[in-house]
Amino acid sequence: MLVLFLGAPILYGILIGHVYQRGKVTQMPVVVIDEDRGNVSATFIEMLGDNESIDVVRIIPSLFNAKDIAIENEASTIVYIPAGFSSGIQQNRLPEIIVFVDGANTLTSNTALMAVNVCAMTLKAGIQIQTQMKKGVPATIAAQQYEPFKTTIVKQNIRSGNYLYFMLPGVLITVLQQVLLLGLALSFSSEFENGTFEELVDKVGNPVILILIKMIPYLSMSLGIIFLYWGFGQYYQMPLYTDLAWFTLCTFAFLLSVCFIGVLVSIILPSQLKSTEVLMVIATPAFIISGFTWPSSLMPHWVQWIANAVPSTHFLRIFRLLFIQHAEKYHTYKPLVALSGIALLCFMAAVLLLSIKIRKVKKKMKCVENT
């Protein structure tokens, strides 16, 4: 309890403090489609690159695969500069810049949108003042004369602008992870602490079967919780449309990874209290460091490493990609592989450690029989 009371406040203070240390959203990825490739478009792209709130991660020549490129680079904004933009300004034809905004995360999308707007307005002001002054118009009057180009904003995935649709799934997924971890924290530690592990080994000596026996009840209850979550979606009128077979596979990988972490900690720590405390430490900050609300790119690398070791980080990314951004399945391959890797690594470690403990118990039982 002393370690818990002193360690938890220090640990969370350092961890959460580093998550929000920058205090504001900066360097949000932006993809630019430059079909014009003229002097004015080059100037505009340079202005975008100089803005601290955004970072131009890709400049592509056409709209082809623009959405996929934006998702791969985690860009919430696509700036489309059409062909003939520079010449259109010179000929007073009022060309148009289109800004596509992905509203999957209102915090990052609004920041990027405001930064692009500031650059566009600055460019407009510079062009119109310079053009009018060439005609002999004073600078104070020139700024009010005409608009050299239009800026059109197209918002996508705007359902997440409703904080119920944005926050409820993220919180519920984190709660499911915490419930599983705390439940499985007692799976083997209770056997060790109560002295019943020998009886268990006497009935079933295979470590894989023992782990499955402990996990299956929690996996079954998890399915019930997921159906309950689906019921919440229907009640709150939250449309949840995607490839259900693929999402089911991803969900199964998530549940396995969480369960194997819980089992592994329960095998390592023979005390119910200690295993519960350790898994609570893992589960409590999971939502904050997952990158679901606050961009993970703004967190220190060591915090990102911790976040990537927690299954809910990857499952929340899958949920956002499939349900909010309506991305293709292949965009979820990376987080799915990460979940599978966590599950496999923890499973192998759990089997190895449990085999060692079973071997010790069997050796002890054999010694008792011989005496």
Folded structure, characterized:
This protein folds into two domains: 22-156, abc type-2 transporter like domain (abc type-2 transporter like fold, 3-Layer(aba) Sandwich); 163-370, no CATH class. Helices cover 65% and strands 9% of the residues. The protein is built from 16 helices and five strands. It has a five-stranded mixed β-sheet, with helices on both faces. Helix 7 (163-184) runs parallel beside helix 11, helix 7 runs antiparallel to helix 15 and helix 9 crosses helix 16 (333-370). The mean pLDDT is 83.
N-to-C SSE series?
HEHEHEHEHHEHHHHHHHHHH
Mean pLDDT across the residues is 83
Shape: elongated
Sequence of strands across the biggest β-sheet:
2-1-3-4-5
Broad structural category: alpha/beta
Q: Poorly predicted ranges (pLDDT <50, ≥5 residues)? A: none
DSSP helix fraction:
55-70%
